[in-house]
Each structure stands twice: as C-alpha cells, then as structure tokens.
Amino acid sequence: MTANRFATRLNSFASRPQAEWPDLIGKPSMLQMAARAAKVAGLTDLDLNFPDHVDEKPAGMARKLGDIGLSVNGFAMRYYSNPAFKLGAFTNPDPAVRREAIDLTKAGIDAAREAGTNLMTLWLGQDGFDYAFQADYAALWQHEIDGIREVAAHDPDCQISLEYKPNEPRSYSLMPDAATTLLAIREIALPNLGVTLDFAHVLYADEQPAFAAALVARHSKLLGVHLNDGYAKRDDGLMVGAVHTLQTIELLRQIRRDGYAGAIYFDTFPDMTGLDPVHECEVNIATVKRMLRVVDRLEKDNRLSTAVERQDAVASQAIIQEAMLGPDS
Q1: Burial class, 56, CB count within 10 angstroms (exposed 0-12 / middle 13-18 / buried 19+)
Q2: What is the CATH topology of the domain spanning 6-277?
Q3: What pLDDT is recorded for position 1?
C-alpha cells in the first residue's frame, strides 16, 4: 500500500459554499472545488466523476490540477445524464439506452486515459430491480456481463474496477456484495477487471471488510479502497474510524499484507451536514496515518500472529487494544 497517496471525493468540497465563496451564485465548478481540496495538508489526488466533472479537454484539466499540486487518481462513471438510466444503464430494457450507457462509459475511459490515469471505477447502482416479477433475472445478468465485458475490452490497459453496493438507488443491486461481484469478474475473465471496496458499502452488505478484501485478493485484484464509516444500515459516509475503528485497522492490515499499491480514497459526506470539508479531510488523513502506525506495531508483535493462528479472540483483542491504547499501567 502506498501510504502517502490520499485521494478524496471532490463533491465534498461543495460543503458550506458560503464560507469559501461568499459571492457564489449557483454551484461551484470542478476547478473551484479542486482548489479548495488543494488546501488539505497531505492530500495528493482526486477522483473525478464522468461526465459530471469533465467540462474541458481532459489533458488540460489534469494540467490545471497539477498546477495546484493534485494528481488524478482515477475516474468514476456516473449514469445521470439520461433520465432513462433510472431503469438501468447496462441492464436497461431498451437496447438503445444500453448502447448509450456503454458508449458513454467508453468515452469516460478515453477521457481518463487522456487525463493520465489508467483507473476507471464502475458503480452500477442503476442496474438492478425493485419489485418481484419486474425482471427476467437471467436476461438482466447477461446484459450486465455483456456491458462490463465490452467496456473492459475497449482499452485493455485501463483498469476497470467494480464497486459494489447492496442497494440505492435500486432496491436490489445486481452487484450487491463481494461474492456476486467476483462471480461476474470470473465469468467475464478479462485481466483488467478488479474490485473497489467501499467501507460503508461492505458494512451494510453484512460483510467483514478485511474478509472481503482477502476474498478479492484471492480471486481477483483490489483496485480501489474507499474509506469512510457508518452504522451498517445505509451509506452514511461518516469520517474514517468514527464507528468501526478496529475493523478499519484490520482492513488496512489485510490490504497491506495483500500488496495493495493504490491510493486511499475518502468517500465521506461532509456536505450532508455542512462540515468544514478541508478540516474533515485532514482529520481523515491523520486518522489513517495513526491507524497505519498501529498496523506497524501489530506486524512487529509475534503474539498477534500466534493468537490469530489459534483463533484466540481474547488474546488478539488484548493485543490490539494495547497497540491502540497503550498498556494498562
């Protein structure tokens, strides 16, 4: 894991706009939000949504971000440009809409490459169903597989990362959890496919984050890690470690052991309640750095590996609490 690469959700920096742009009318531009993000100490990268954030030539946009000290970690597709996508992007019942979604994704991949990144994240939240007897499940799955296969084959040098989520906006997502996503990747069988783990999505898929990461490492490859937190009921987008501190540390330990080399991306929602996005992001970075120091201490403690080998929960909890909080005297 590259500990010194931290990326963030750009739209977070629209939070409390009056504090940053007192004369702003309407919404801040991509470059306005990026300039605000550049104030975050320790932030190195941004992820950009396509087509939302791309309103000029991608190469020129990347140069402007570089001028303020930020790199483009990757692009992420958004399927909001056509209202018909509400009924599905790759799985829409209308072949013309499916083609539009696939072609939009290919354009996004091309734009990402022009911006100097080889990572495209697909969150296919519109692909799913809401009612019993609404869909032919076999046909729906086939459309999804065909769509992902076509866009992944479009540029073999671009890594295509599938980000799963149990639901929202659809009641049931076709890619709801790690196992289903890995089944799709196995069926498509293209080497540039992998998985993005979003911590809050993993929680409300009723998964243990480190176990999900281990499965991904065993059966595919981990291409993205989105850190946040929540109460495992929805996509809360809380600050890192706010609720599930131990599980976050265990995930960081697991992905380090598995050789994850990408950025840590903060997919948090300070804009939902008007938090200061600069300070919020700086606290997230500081939290992860502290957690990584805990991981360092744990990796040097032979007692933990012995406890884990024996599946001795009491011993392992004692060791972890000591690493986090110090000795009891």
Answers
A1: exposed
A2: TIM Barrel (3.20.20)
A3: 56
